[in-house]
Amino acid sequence: MIGFTLRRLVLLLPVFFVVSLVVFFIIHLVPGDPIDNLMRAGSTPEQRLQIAAKYGLDRSLVEQYVTWMGRLLTGDLGTSIIQGRPVSALIARNLPYSLELGIAALLFSTLTGIAAGVIAASYQGTRVDDSITGFILLGSTVPSFWLGLLLILVFAVWLGWVPVSGARGWSSLILPTIAAGLGGIALVARVTRIAMIETSRQDFVTLLHAKGLPPFIIQLRHVLRHAMVPVVTILSLRIGWVLGGAVTIEYVFARPGLGSLLIRALNQRDYPLVQGCLLMLAMAVIIGALIGDIVQAAMDPRQREARA
Fold first, then answer.
1. Where would you find the membrane-spanning parts of this chain (predicted)?
2. Tell me: the pLDDT tens digits for 228-278?
3. Residue 6 lies in a domain
4. Which tens digits make up the pLDDT trace of 27-42?
5. Residue 1 has what pLDDT?
6. Can you give the residue range of the structural domain that contains 238?
7. How many angstroms separate the CA atoms of 158 and 175, rounded?
8. In a domain, 131, yes or no
9. Angstrom distance (rounded) from CA 22 to CA 62
10. Count of domains forming the chain
């Protein structure tokens, strides 16, 4: 396992380099200029050139990338052009809110999705299975931002049970968690159901039934354990979603977080801040995939041998 983990870590180095290239050049190819947000009415072209030189925007993109990468390797994400504060400080201030929402939505979608998948697989071909399958289809097609607006209208505006927006206390986390987690429930439930149905058709399950074990013991103790490998794959990918998947939800519910910070920075063309936020979100996905590979290899040695 140690050798497998080290090999996977080494493979992250070229991935990190490619991700940094994509993040840097995408934001610089987007139309717009952060200098436009700094210029005052009546500013002269000479003043514009001075501002560009101050932030290194007068140099070529290759020179700017090399400078940014050099600072990045030392842990310096740069300074926000618009806000004039270190990017790392801005991310650190908003990151806890994104983690709070992301972890809550991940736990909600994981536990509910696995439970729904187990129930659907246990009652395959019945109305229970059809009802859960219908919910899975609905949950995978409803846009999270539309669901968020609907939840705000019903539970915050009409009923007044929870706050409309913000991050004031645990009650303000309920609606964003539901809106962000519904799609995850559908995905996890679908994968769990399919994996359990396929596992239940294997010979060892028939042998367990022949031995007279209760069906619920077979489903929960044996079938579910063997069916968790593909579920772990999905969950590992959703670890990165903890930070990146709730961008629109944060904006709809006016919550602080990386999503709201990123959208503001994009509107202002704040290059260093956008690069820092996108790099953070991309690395979350990469690290999530790494954790998934390690967990899969620990659960199933065949996965470790296949990827050696």
1. 9-30, 103-123, 135-161, 173-192, 227-253, 273-295
2. 878 887 877 777 666 666 778 888 898 888 888 988 898 888 899 999 998
3. no
4. 888 777 787 777 776 6
5. 67
6. 87-307
7. 14
8. yes
9. 13
10. 1
